[in-house]
Write a structure and sequence with these properties.
mainly alpha; two-stranded antiparallel sheet; 6 helices; globular
């Protein structure tokens, strides 16, 4: 299980990094993960939203459907467990199918149109697609992050779990306070970027 989760997180991080790079981000500079030589911190920040609803769900489904079985793993001399070459190819095929197949709607997604970035709809000159995929969702979150950083539009993370009305109201209040604080901080920055 750990080998599959680790592999899935690595692939998901690469997918997120590709979308961030395409949107013009410097992936070495993160918001939550600090700058470290040789590490792409921003994809690590954004992939956190996708770990449970995308990677964990995919891994559990592959095991439940017996698309991967114990014989698909090998133990190395140092004790590390990893997929065999054939199983890794099969895993990547399943992963690609998952990325392009219709994704389940998450709690804070209200409509199909909302699940696709407006920039993509405008660029392609078409309506929102009938099926929203995990790739669309990653692209949407990248564009939400860009709008937050450049235009101060509040960032809305993926929400895959249910929460009570009280927690939802408290979260909305915290988000509102955070947005006001961020806007105030930007107003106090002088031309040199100093507070």
């Amino acid at each position: 299980m750990n080998a599959l989760l680790s592999f899935g997180y690595t692939i998901a991080t690469s997918e997120v990094a590709r979308h961030l790079t395409a949107a013009g981000f410097d992936t070495r500079i993160g918001v939550l993960h600090g700058v470290r030589y040789g590490r792409e911190s921003l994809p690590l920040d954004l992939v956190e939203e996708f770990r449970a609803p995308m990677v964990d769900r995919f891994t559990l489904k592959a095991l439940h459907l017996r698309q991967l079985v114990p014989d698909d793993f090998e133990t190395r001399d140092d004790g590390a467990v990893r997929l065999t070459d054939d199983a890794r190819r099969r895993y990547l095929e399943l992963w690609e199918e998952m990325l392009v197949r219709r994704a389940p709607r998450l709690r804070n997604e209200k409509s199909e149109e909302e699940m696709v970035p407006a920039e993509r709809i405008a660029r392609e000159g078409a309506a929102a697609p009938a099926e929203v995929t995990w790739r669309h969702r990653i692209e949407r979150q990248v564009h939400r992050l860009k709008r937050f950083l450049l235009k101060r539009v509040p960032y809305r993370p993926l929400q895959a779990t249910k929460k009570s009305a009280g927690i939802a109201a408290e979260t909305a209040q915290i988000d509102s306070q955070r947005a006001a604080h961020t806007a105030e901080a930007y107003e106090n920055v002088d031309e040199d970027g100093d507070l």
